[in-house]
């Protein structure tokens, strides 16, 4: 979102147009500048009628439609361009940025008028956070065929994501997060936008239905954020290009294995599937994704023994592994000692808290180890004559052992202090859950 510098842009335009003027006007003293296409001017006028500055915002203060005013030169947020193939005699609006985007600006209110789709040369449409409500004009994708960037996050948009937002050959970023949108994700969003790289739909609450299987084939996707919606069904295999995926706090379910054993994910750095209803094992292959840095799977229904892939090397970049609040059992793998932060708490783990983890904490590699609220029966003592680094947090309270003091000093507020788990829960084994 860095619009070209306007003065430079106009100079560029003049140089571009100079031959035309020399040809058209024999008298060189006063070449008139091109004006905005009347249809675009009308659309801007209509937009101005439909939207308003919220108290404290003054975005529209220089939008003056009196005769002789020239929106391309004077209206904040309006950038025009010239395309001799489309409109040989006029400029058209190519970038429209509504609102100032300043952190202390309350933004705009009102609704997006359908006439916004009359600005057919638009490549970028940005509405900064505010209180713009109502639907996204359904025709938007049928008419704004040159859209590269559409960003209307943090407003109060209602209704569906228009299915017209497909077949847009240049669309690279669609950001409609933090609104009140509802309904399904149009499959064509993934299958028919060949250049879509960034898809931000988080925190709408009402986006529902399944994540279409077309998601797997969106070959250029880099960053997808679907957090805090109402999506259901399984997670299809993510496309190989992906670096960032959050689908946290939805109602996705089923096993994770199909999504993480079928396709290579050589670039995936961030994966957040917390707060869903995924079940079955944590696929061992997930720990070997070469670029994985954050793996967040807490608050699901994952079970079985936690394992890393025996042959493949562990990702060397793991900084956070959070698998807390599941139903995982057995002893967790030693190999995870290389993680920067390891959250195992609130599972059904048994056996000894691996010595490698304790060594990693004392050597300063691992900074957080949460093992509380499990069924561990032992924890090895810290390495001799070393002090725990001041920044480290280690917690192993509420297990099937009396935790030594070093294993409770780093417990978060609310963890059950130095208490062991009641003996009757431990005698029946890890089956007696306590969540
Ligand atoms: C938008 O375009 C349609 C059809 O081309 C036209 O009927 C309508 O008046 C235009 N609206 C505005 C506000 O310019
Ligand atoms: C959790 O997973 C188990 C099987 O692993 C299944 O029987 C149970 O129904 C699941 N619970 C929920 C709430 O999904």
UniProtKB/TrEMBL annotation:
Pfam families: LRR_1, LRRNT_2. Coiled coil: none annotated. The keyword DNA damage does not apply. Residues 38-81 form the Leucine-rich repeat-containing N-terminal plant-type domain. Keywords: Glycoprotein, Leucine-rich repeat, Membrane, Repeat, Signal, Transmembrane, Transmembrane helix. InterPro entries: Leu-rich_rpt, Leu-rich_rpt_typical-subtyp, LRR_dom_sf, LRR_N_plant-typ, RLP29. It comes from the Eukaryota. Residues 1-24 form the signal peptide. The keyword Mitochondrion does not apply. This is Leucine-rich repeat-containing N-terminal plant-type domain-containing protein. The lineage of its organism: Eukaryota, Viridiplantae, Streptophyta, Embryophyta, Tracheophyta.
């Amino acid at each position: 979102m860095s619009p070209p510098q306007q003065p430079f842009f106009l100079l560029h335009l003049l140089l571009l147009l100079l031959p035309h003027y020399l040809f058209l006007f024999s008298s060189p003293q006063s070449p008139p500048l091109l004006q905005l296409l009347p249809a675009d001017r009308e659309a801007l006028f209509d937009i101005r009628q439909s939207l308003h500055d919220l108290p404290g915002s003054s975005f529209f203060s220089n939008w003056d439609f009196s005769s002789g005013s020239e929106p391309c030169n004077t209206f904040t947020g309006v950038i025009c361009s010239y395309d001799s193939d489309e409109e040989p005699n006029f400029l058209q609006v190519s970038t429209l940025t509504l609102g100032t985007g300043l952190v202390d600006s309350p933004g705009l209110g009102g609704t997006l008028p359908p006439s916004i789709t009359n600005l057919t040369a638009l490549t970028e449409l940005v509405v900064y956070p505010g209180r713009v409500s109502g639907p996204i004009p359904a025709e938007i994708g049928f008419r704004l065929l040159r859209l590269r960037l559409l960003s209307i996050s943090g407003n109060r948009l209602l209704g569906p994501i228009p299915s017209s937002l497909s077949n847009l050959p240049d669309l690279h970023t669609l950001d409609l997060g933090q609104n009140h949108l509802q309904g399904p994700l149009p499959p064509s969003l993934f299958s028919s936008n060949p250049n879509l790289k960034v898809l931000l739909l988080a925190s709408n609450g009402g986006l529902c239905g399944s994540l279409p299987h077309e998601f797997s084939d969106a070959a250029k996707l880099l960053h997808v954020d679907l957090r805090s919606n109402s999506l259901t069904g399984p997670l299809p295999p993510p496309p190989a290009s992906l670096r960032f995926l959050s689908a946290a706090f939805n109602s996705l379910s089923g096993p994770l294995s199909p999504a993480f054993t079928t396709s290579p994910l050589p670039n995936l750095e961030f994966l957040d599937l917390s707060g869903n209803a995924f079940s079955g094992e944590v696929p061992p292959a997930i720990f070997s994704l070469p670029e994985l840095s954050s793996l967040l799977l807490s608050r699901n229904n994952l079970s079985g023994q936690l394992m890393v892939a025996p042959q493949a090397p562990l990702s060397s970049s793991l900084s956070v592994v959070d698998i807390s609040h599941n139903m995982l059992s057995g002893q967790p793998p030693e190999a995870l000692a290389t993680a920067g932060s390891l959250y195992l708490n609130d599972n059904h783990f048994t056996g000894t808290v691996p010595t490698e983890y304790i060594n990693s904490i004392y050597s300063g590699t691992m900074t957080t180890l949460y093992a509380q609220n499990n069924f561990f029966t032992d924890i090895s003592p810290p390495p001799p004559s070393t002090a725990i680094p001041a920044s480290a947090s280690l917690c192993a309270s509420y297990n099937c052992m009396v935790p030594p003091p070093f294993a409770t000093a780093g417990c978060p507020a609310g963890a059950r202090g130095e208490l062991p788990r009641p003996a009757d829960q431990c005698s029946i084994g890890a089956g007696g859950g306590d969540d």
